[in-house]
Amino acid sequence: MKDRQLLSEFANVINSDRYQYTESDVFLKEGMQEKVAVFDMYFRKTEDGGLAVVSGIHEVIKLIEVLNSTSEEEKRKYFSLLIHEEELLEYLVKLKFTGDIYAMRDGEIAYPNEPIITIKAPIIQAKILETPILNIMNMQIAIATKASRVSRAAHPTPVLSFGSRRAHGFTSAVDGNKAAYIGGCATHSNIVTEYKYGIPSVGTMAHSYIQTFGVGREAEKESFDKFIKNRRGENNPLILLIDTYNTLKIGIQNAIDSFQDAGIDDSYEGTYGIRIDSGDLAYLSKKCRELLDEASLHKAQIVLTNGLDENLIRALKEQDVAVDSYGVGDAIAVSKSNPCFGGVYKIVEVDDKSVIKLSEDIIKISNPGFKEVYRLYDKNGLAYADLITLVDGDKDKKLLMNDDTIELMDENYDFKSVSLAGGEYTHKKLTKVYVKDGQITKEYLKLKDIKNSRDYYLKELEKISTERKRLENPHKYKVNLSHDLKKLKYKLINKISKQIKGEI
Amino acid sequence: MKDRQLLSEFANVINSDRYQYTESDVFLKEGMQEKVAVFDMYFRKTEDGGLAVVSGIHEVIKLIEVLNSTSEEEKRKYFSLLIHEEELLEYLVKLKFTGDIYAMRDGEIAYPNEPIITIKAPIIQAKILETPILNIMNMQIAIATKASRVSRAAHPTPVLSFGSRRAHGFTSAVDGNKAAYIGGCATHSNIVTEYKYGIPSVGTMAHSYIQTFGVGREAEKESFDKFIKNRRGENNPLILLIDTYNTLKIGIQNAIDSFQDAGIDDSYEGTYGIRIDSGDLAYLSKKCRELLDEASLHKAQIVLTNGLDENLIRALKEQDVAVDSYGVGDAIAVSKSNPCFGGVYKIVEVDDKSVIKLSEDIIKISNPGFKEVYRLYDKNGLAYADLITLVDGDKDKKLLMNDDTIELMDENYDFKSVSLAGGEYTHKKLTKVYVKDGQITKEYLKLKDIKNSRDYYLKELEKISTERKRLENPHKYKVNLSHDLKKLKYKLINKISKQIKGEI
């Protein structure tokens, strides 16, 4: 048993539901394993109805790297204990990914129903990747998107993501802080995230540190003095936590005394200041600001924490809170108000034939066919609409390529269609090739620079209008199907409708 | 960079916040590293105000096993890139855990403010474990407790946990399904959970499987036929998903036809039946039950899924839903309605001196001292109250040991105190020793049998009164401080209060 607790990287590839393998068994026994399927990973809605921030493509492509570089021996170690169908076991031990993966990049801004990832591969390869891909993407997009909301609320005050203790397990803490950074957080506190992704971690001070020196005023003062004495210099931050006993009566006094005793003032080369983690943050922060200013500690920073989220931060701003940065834990780490992102992975084509799922729930009807996504910008450079086209033989796509006049058609309401004249818009293809015939492309390398993904996101965010970025009821962004895609979709729906009505 | 993406088990030990190490630097420079600190891991509240289910102790003790067995070379690989303080780096490379860990067992039922884990160790050892311990416990207790709520709502109908795709990353999927199992789920769907913990995984059928055969009635029928043909026998479950196109007009007809064509009926040795994943589950399930019964498929099971949680399941029961098992994803996998469990890790003693944190927020005041937890049962064997005592020199603990008459005192309201006469109650110590002087005890081995932890939970659940198990506003369970603990706590609070008032 002990040995089985130690999982290798390959376990990430098979972090999957049993039925993916049960069904692969049927495909294999029926000789269907060479059928080429296309699957889309997309989501149906966001918390606020607005944008989502893509994160996790890096780790998804990493799955392919791991799958294709894992030895048969290693694969057999796992599968021999899990797969009881002999033929399937041998097939899986030899399995490598030989298909294509298309995706938006990390840091991309995405909207509902757009394929974020499209996989085109022999059916078993594409099928067994469903659960691990969704497991990665749902966590990371949830966190990146929540980080985007929180950091937009706090802007221009920076947000520190520090919720590792509340994140859901190791991967969520380590990769989640990376996603939070891509989604706009200024920094994070996790040292494994720093190790794995090269994004520097930061931190302030904990209550338990202060309590290690005993109880009460003198003990707190000693803890501050020792901290400053040993940490000063080398641009080290000196942020003292002042609410262990009483913020105004004890903590802020001790902090000011400690800074003054140590000669720390506005000439200190690093950042210095205080953190408040309880009580009425608006009131306490302003009182502390006054006291710090009276002591001529004008550059002393105020860090605020304590269950903050985008709504509390907006309320604090309305009260003219005195703040230099916010630390946010739970709200981002588990995307607290919307923990379940709800991304799905749906089959849309088999051997060049489009397929559809016609659910009892209208929102669950999938868009068929092998597709890609374009973003159209208006003359001011603002994103105007996204267009989902078929990859092959799509007439709207051709118009786009030629910068011709194009009609953007609302799927449900004809009267909402609009026409964009050639020259009045520009476009960008959001779908990139990350894996081609099982070979990982150079696009993947770009994702390894996490700061680059964050910069990309921030730059794209500037191209979204203010109304579409607001946190409540953002102005709806158009995501349109091309004429050919809509035609294909409703042809399939009509076929099934007739079957339901008993007409065919 | 590539190398740093491949993390070894040791990364779990340092899945931590930067400040734990910054503060360790101060302790080391001040020569405080031999100070022995006691930290408690506990939580302040649950979603419903009632019980929580402990899970994750197994993985916490595993951290100690990994820390103490990792080579200095391996530790240096990480720390040399992360720790820039030379003395601290060398200290960490040599660090092993030499202290004690006390904890409730996995499967234990716990209440607010009770120490679930107590660590007594040299300060740096105890400090750097804070974040990784909370990261493990907050995820697993959240999921186990939510699984408990959902499976209590569904009882006696079994609940399958199958939310890996919505779980927050790899660890949350793999360890989370284990936690869901401990918390009462009958089974789960993740094959890595099966590999790692030996709990068999199960599954039914996906829409994409059906769509691989094309679009519409005939394609669905073919997919059912092929599934039955290739999977029948060996007790394999044959559960057909019937809502891809239309549950009543297409799916159930195809399912009945496929079963009958293949000669699958109530004599089939495994389970067989249908799954419905959309639409009005109450209505559709009853209609399908009628149709199955008319076809003499009385033992055909009905599995219901689609965003179910404890409340929807209760509503379905009220409507006399026809169901044999529920599949639950999001609600359990991310503990959707309460994703942030909020467990904390607080210092309570340093070198045998008790410490306290007196927050601006009353609920954040910690209970000082080195403590343990007892459960008292009434004459009917039902849990009556929990008592938190000091480990050393506690008079109530002594009364308990002698089965003497004991007064259970409410912390806030004297008039609520009750007296339990000797012979009228029995007691059990919930706190067990998992690590002593850095050595892992035999108690740890018991946690490796996950089914045993689940059985323990189910047995303990029977000892909780119906009123205390109900899902809304459960009858409050008494968690009392011993007289000596209360005295200690208020002595410390009074000392600080006087400082705040300027009296000392």
UniProtKB/TrEMBL annotation, chains A, B:
EC number: 6.3.4.21
PTM comment text: Transiently phosphorylated on a His residue during the reaction cycle. Phosphorylation strongly increases the affinity for substrates and increases the rate of nicotinate D-ribonucleotide production. Dephosphorylation regenerates the low-affinity form of the enzyme, leading to product release.
Record key words, sorted: Glycosyltransferase, Ligase, Phosphoprotein, Pyridine nucleotide biosynthesis, Transferase
InterPro entries hit by this protein: Aldolase_TIM, NAPRTase_C, NAPRTase_N, Nic_PRibTrfase-Fam, Nic_PRibTrfase_pncB, Nicotinate_pribotase-like_C
Domain Nicotinate phosphoribosyltransferase N-terminal residues, every copy: 15-138
GO MF assignments: glycosyltransferase activity; nicotinate phosphoribosyltransferase activity
Any Pfam family: NAPRTase_N
Pathway membership: Cofactor biosynthesis; NAD(+) biosynthesis; nicotinate D-ribonucleotide from nicotinate: step 1/1
Name of this chain's protein: Nicotinate phosphoribosyltransferase
Organism of provenance: Psychrilyobacter piezotolerans
